[in-house]
Specification:
about 100 residues; alpha+beta; 4 helices; 5 strands
């Protein structure tokens, strides 16, 4: 499970049906070499692995490599599979509340 899971995303997931689309921001941990983390390889492995395991594709997916992040619109089933990966550091609703980080 993600190290930090935004409560708004949690509520959205709880209310959604398995196939209902959910929007989320996913941030993965840095690799051992922070410079190599910028190439989004770990982020792609996390998301691609989840896609293969649940045999489902996101409706929309945008990678933000310098932030080790992705913005994804996908089914609840796929989002939950991504959140189960140990490399996910933060998962948030797309209307992120920055005050929780202060």
């Amino acid at each position: 499970m993600a190290a930090y899971l935004d409560r708004r995303l949690t509520r959205t997931i709880e209310r959604a049906g398995l196939a209902e689309a959910i929007e989320a921001i996913i941030i993965v941990k840095e690799g051992e070499d922070p410079a190599s983390s910028m190439d989004e390889a770990l982020l792609r492995r996390v998301i691609d692995g989840a896609i293969q395991r649940v045999d489902d594709s996101p409706l929309a997916l945008r990678y933000i490599p310098r932030a080790n992040a992705a913005i994804i619109t996908a089914s609840r089933k796929l989002i939950e599979e991504i959140l189960g990966d140990e490399n996910v550091a933060v998962a948030s609703a797309v209307d992120i509340d920055l005050m929780v980080f202060y």
